[in-house]
Specification:
alpha/beta, 39% helix, five-stranded antiparallel sheet
Length: 449
């Protein structure tokens, strides 16, 4: 390559002054080494189309994923936006200050549940609940009005805000539950918010608890005590919500991650509360980690295993909770497969199980996690940088690399193909989907359901 650069310099010297020849070669070298595209690629504007994703050739297993196909379709959604390809229930989790509130009104025909992440439970001596400044009562009214106009074609879309225990450890929550009067005061605060804002229920978001926790294999007695405390809390709040025809959802991690490992909320407890009809739905949240840095949505195989184990590990019907979670029978009662129960659970439990799929990605730099990547940033990178796309068989997702002249970035971001593989597994089981970070991702993801 150096030979050709010197040759170019020699040719230019014959026709141009030395300083001008040097500047031309310098510009050539800079453009050659630049990690940026010579001209940014066009990103599609927000809009609608009468064509489905299949009509646009975006779901064929044999089709190659290209930067151009992503940029040209990411912001376009099929019209009319109604549920067509998915048999289950669809929910979305919306983060504050995101386009999710705007997107939800566009996709209202498909959505059954909307979970705005608006509330944080304060970790203090006093029981306090803080609302995010993005809380918008007029948006709630707009959802209900739009839903009412569609009542002849679908059930109402329910607004169920999330109450997160951000900054809490498992021990903090356990201590909170043991202080007399705390639970009652918390329930009263929740009921006031539901009544004044016209919510349809609440989501107890335990996913934000940090992992100062205990291992199942090390302290079964503590696990049983923890599970019974949580069960009593969920039972109390469920009773008050049901009196007012309000719904209760909770989050947990997959059974396959939690059994024999570090976990925060026992999945078996969530399944028990479903069996007792104390809650209306369990949302399985989280991502698979790879090499402690990369993370992607749970792979189709992992989802398959997790949902299969829900059927075989479900607590025995009619069993008393204290016995189910006693130190002596904890693992025995929750891990022994029972095909007869599995058949029944498939009809009664899976319709209330939701698997969350993130609509944002993450970036790795020098082998270290750099941060989450929104749909807007993702499209910006693809439109301006020279990128290398390679399908990662391990994650069943696209791996993208690009350079900033000095270092190489590794970018993981969900694709239509990757999400479809996961949604197909969930649909085959009869479970449901929740899209996380809705509005921070790409609009055309909604056409998958």
């Amino acid at each position: 390559m150096l030979f050709w650069i010197l040759a170019l310099f020699g040719c230019l010297q014959k026709f141009l002054p030395n300083n001008e020849a040097f500047s031309h070669v310098f510009v050539f070298c800079r453009q050659y080494r630049s990690p940026l595209l010579h001209s940014p690629l066009r990103i599609s504007h927000f809009g609608t189309t009468n064509q489905s994703l299949a009509d646009r050739g975006l779901l064929s297993e044999n089709s190659t994923i290209t930067v151009e196909s992503i940029l040209g379709n990411a912001n376009i959604v099929q019209k009319p936006s109604k549920k067509a390809n998915f048999n289950g229930t669809i929910g979305v989790i919306i983060q504050p200050e995101s386009k999710g509130f705007e997107f939800s009104l566009i996709a209202i025909k498909k959505l059954d549940y909307i979970f705005p992440n608006w509330y944080t439970v304060n970790l203090d001596e006093d029981v306090e609940v803080y609302a995010d400044k993005s809380l918008n009562s007029s948006w709630v009214s707009a959802v209900k009005t739009a839903s009412e106009n569609l009542k002849e074609s679908k059930d109402s879309t329910l607004v169920i805000p999330s109450f997160s225990f951000t900054g809490w450890s498992q021990w903090d929550l356990q201590e909170f539950l043991h202080v007399k009067g705390n639970v009652k005061e918390f329930i009263n605060l929740v009921l006031v918010e539901c009544e004044s804002k016209k919510y349809d229920g609440i989501l107890l978001n335990f996913d934000t608890l940090h992992s100062e926790t205990i291992r199942m294999t090390q302290d079964k007695q503590a696990i049983g005590k923890w599970a019974r405390s949580l069960h009593a809390f969920i039972r109390q709040i469920s009773q008050e919500l049901k009196k007012r025809s309000l719904k209760l959802f909770v989050t947990t991690t997959p059974l396959t991650v939690s059994l024999g490992n570090v976990y925060l909320i026992p999945p078996s407890l969530m399944l028990t509360t479903l069996n007792e009809k104390l809650i209306d739905g369990v949302i399985i949240v989280g991502k698979e980690k790879r090499k402690c840095t990369r993370s992607c949505n749970y792979t189709p195989r992992f989802i398959d295993t997790s949902l299969s184990q829900i059927l075989t590990h479900f607590p025995e019907l009619g069993q008393e909770l204290p016995n189910a979670f006693s130190s002596s029978s904890f693992r025995k009662n929750l891990i022994q497969p029972d095909e007869q129960i599995s058949s029944e659970m498939k009809k009664t439990v899976l319709p209330n199980i939701f698997v969350s799929l993130s609509t944002i990605g993450n970036e790795i730099l020098d082998g270290r996690y750099k941060g989450d990547v929104s749909g807007k940033r993702y499209l910006s990178i693809l439109s301006t940088h020279k990128t290398h796309l390679e399908w990662d068989e391990h994650c069943d997702e696209l791996d993208i690399t690009y350079s900033d002249s000095v270092r190489t970035h590794d970018l993981f971001y969900p694709t239509l193909k990757g999400l479809k593989h996961r949604i197909d597994v969930i649909d085959n089981y009869g479970a449901n989907v929740v899209f996380e970070n809705f509005g921070d991702g790409l609009l055309y993801f909604m056409d998958l359901t």
